[in-house]
Specification:
By secondary structure, the chain is an alpha/beta fold. 39% of the residues lie in helices and 15% in strands. It binds pyridoxal-5'-phosphate. Pyridoxal-5'-phosphate binds next to α9 and α13.
């Protein structure tokens, strides 16, 4: 915490010390706090050159920009430093010259949430709390369970009824106490909040706990370094609660403040059309209006986003915009991303790609502009949705009857006479 100067409310602007636990005492539960740093002091140890010398290839390489103590005990799982790949075929398909993908499905539990959960367990450990809890549509849950397991902490997780089975299984394997709430994510969230208060567990809910966005921020810090400080025109991120996009933007803001990049990208925030209250708030300029979410992208099916304000401010500050995509477009993006890059994105992750496609079609993103899309989670985490995007395998007898006809039909063998 050597460089943390306090916590500022994103609504009323009041500055608090880090003794304030979760949200603004004046604004209440909706008063999201933002961690403040002494960037002037950070600029001394954190330079392009000092970073290049660091051998820590995980998100802990940006320790000065993280709200953890110098002597913090860290989880042993490797979080972050996921690859940035150039996706030439997919770029061509979308009508773009340059497209990069940051493949964050390659974190230990298969999603970007590991970046936040790892901070959560470090803070819980620091506060000598043995039990950590959260509500989650699935990814925050499985990542928290995994990170807690690696630190020897116990976890209590509330998931909505609809949480995909692979994610629930993952967290059972990691030894969490799993409570499947017969209701929506919002119901699970409310129950986890009251339970944390009642039993005094450490609360990992991203939009309540200001430290977690700082973990999500590292995806943006890595992008700067991995693209050798030359950032694309746009960075596309899918939006549920709004913590991820707020974190990614904060990374660019910080890198610019530290003088490590000259120009920050514009942010493209993408929501599923059936769960788009943040886009609505962004477009109307009004406060968030809760909705009843309906989308196959479970990780962003959030009816009452807790971090909408940070998300809206981030997109505005970047000069970017927000866009919605239909479930059909998400499935299409899963298919084309898989086929043209070899990256298997879960629906919420493919949403970013679908958003890029739509933004190009609508002329929001110019064809000559460069884009990076963050693939936030691995497709194996939600097989049922993925199955909606593809056809069935061909059933074939061991003697191979009918095989040739299939291959011919798919243009995989030479036709007679050609
Ligand atoms: C959580 C999540 C998001 C969205 O992040 P928010 O902070 O909720 O906006 C996007 N994609 C995946 C795979 C996620 O798990």
């Amino acid at each position: 915490m050597e460089f943390v100067t306090g916590l500022r409310c994103v609504f009323c602007g009041e500055l608090y010390s880090t003794r304030t636990a979760y949200t603004c005492p004046k604004c209440g539960i909706t008063g999201t706090l933002d961690v403040q740093y002494d960037y002037r002091a950070i600029a001394r140890p954190l330079t392009r050159r000092s970073l290049a010398k660091r051998s820590e290839f995980s998100h802990w390489r940006y320790r000065e920009l993280l709200p953890i103590r110098k002597d913090a005990v860290l989880p042993s799982l490797q979080v972050g430093w996921t690859p940035v790949v150039r996706a030439a075929s997919l770029a061509k398909h979308l009508g773009l010259k340059t497209l990069y993908i940051k493949d964050d499905g390659r974190n230990p539990s298969g999603s970007l949430k590991d970046r936040a959960s790892s901070i959560g367990v470090v803070k819980a450990y620091e506060k000598r709390q043995k039990i950590i809890a959260c509500a989650s549509t699935g990814n925050a849950a499985s990542s928290l369970a995994g990170q807690a397991a690696s630190m020897g902490l116990r976890s209590v997780i509330f998931v909505p009824e609809r949480a995909p089975e692979p994610k629930v299984t993952q967290l059972l394997i990691f030894g969490a106490t799993v409570l499947r709430v017969q209701g929506s994510y919002e119901d699970a969230f409310q129950l986890s909040q009251s339970s944390c208060e009642r039993w005094g567990w450490y609360n990992r809910n991203s939009a309540i706990n200001p430290y977690l966005v700082e973990g999500k921020k590292t995806v943006g810090l890595e992008i700067c370094e991995q693209l050798e400080w030359d950032l694309p025109d746009w960075v596309a991120v899918s939006v549920g609660d709004g913590c991820t996009i707020a974190g990614v933007w904060k990374a660019f803001f910080e890198m610019k403040t530290l003088g490590l990049i000259n120009r920050a990208p514009k942010m493209l925030g993408v929501q599923a059309a059936g769960a788009a209250p943040v886009t609505t708030a962004f477009q109307s300029g009004e406060s968030l209006k809760p909705i009843d979410p309906k989308t196959i992208a479970d990780s962003i099916a959030v009816g009452v986003p807790r971090n909408w304000k940070k998300a809206v401010l981030a997109v505005q500050a970047s000069g970017g915009t927000m866009i919605n995509v239909e479930d059909e477009e998400i499935l299409e993006a899963m298919r084309t991303t898989g086929r043209l890059t070899g990256i298997f994105a879960e629906p919420a992750a493919a949403t970013a790609i679908a958003g890029v496609r739509r933004a190009v079609e609508e002329g929001v993103i110019g064809r000559m502009e460069s884009v990076l899309a963050v693939v936030t989670g691995n497709g194996l985490k939600d097989i049922r949705s993925a199955q909606l995007a593809v056809t069935k395998p061909f059933e074939i007898a061991p003697n191979g009857a009918g095989l040739e006809a299939i291959l011919k039909d798919r243009n995989l063998v030479r036709q007679p006479g050609t």
